[in-house]
Amino acid sequence: MKSKVLAGLGAVVVTAAALTGCSSGGEAAAASCTNEIKQPDATQVSVWAWYPAFEDVVDLFNETHDEVQVCWTNAGQGNDEYTKFSTAVESGSGAPDVIMLESEVLSSFSIRDALVDLSEYGADEVKGDYTEGAWKDVSSGDAVYAIPVDGGPMGMLYRKDILDKYGITPPTTWAEFADAARKLKDAGAPGVLADFPPNGRAYTQALFAQSGSVPFTYDSANPTDIGIDVNDQGSKDVLSYWQDLTDKGLVAVDEAFTADYNTMLVDGTYAIYVAAAWGPGYLQGLEGTDENAQWRAAPVPQWDTGNPVQINWGGSTFAVTSQAKDKEASATVAKEIFGTEEAWKIGIEKAALFPLWKPILESDYFANLEYPFFGGQQINKEVFLPAAAGYSGSTFSPFQNYAYDQLQQEVTAVVVDKKKDAGQALDDLQATLEKYAKDQGFTLE
């Protein structure tokens, strides 16, 4: 049965690679180095990763490790890298030894036997260095398929100057958020309170999770069994909430991460940006920021302030691929490349990463950092550290990208095309994913 599942998923991946025109970088892609090798006689471990300022982290690792050296290549970001990796998995060659993967796609590759179970290579030795939620995101049963790096606990970034101008208090609940959106529109403001991007995908799912959604149950110990529950009442309530706001024109429905969206993030079109902990760094890196803007950060709004639920928008990891030539050395890289305070200070100060490594996550240095972009506010201490501490982890499906694609289609049908209501859209999503799972050889729990 597992072979049927793997064959089905492999066919889908090959089709996706053909449609995008991507191909594996082959052995050359895995072996070419962007960085300098400090110890030529040491074991070399090839790494694919797209972290900002990563070359500095690689140089630090190579300077402090005589036995192992990192040979780093940026093979593309997100799906661009995943497509190349998928093609390498299908061909049986061309993959790097270590690969940066977002936690949500780990099960998509582990089910295809593309990743090494790091519990056999000392993962338990570093488990205590990570939060419970971060470790759950890289684990399935007793297996550990990656080492956590950075996370996306969520908060609310807002334009203090805009809210002050219209007499709006930063909302602490979603009811207050809706009231603020109405107040801003009634006042004739040129922009809107926020954007609800139809291509939010992981963002949308995080909002659903805050209302209790557990869309998938899956354990790699039983790789052909999966539970799917994407049309739960909590998800329907959340999508209905946003449908009401978009129908009334109280929030925008612009696709995220386009050039226009980036402009509107910083020119005052949106007064609030509900963001992950990497959002502050993303904002600061955009051009055209309003010089008079006063940005601040606050906790993400809650449905029930008496029972707050913290949520997470993405997180990245280092996994060892099954094609790794020296799995022991590769595991050392995955565990140790972001395993020092010095490495993490590079990641925080040059790349605006939010660490999941507890020695720096729980340090006074990180908590007390003041951010000039946010008026000197200690946004980690006040917003993102509490959010990270309250996050208990998620379970993703072994076809998560497909599930996200279908979610995006249904959300678009609700808030852009106005063809469905929230309940019908999520019922349709449930039916689509159940059919897909069965067609791929899964058994529904």
TrEMBL record:
Q: Where are the transmembrane segments?
A: none
Q: Provide the protein name.
A: Extracellular solute-binding protein
Species, as recorded:
Microbacterium ureisolvens
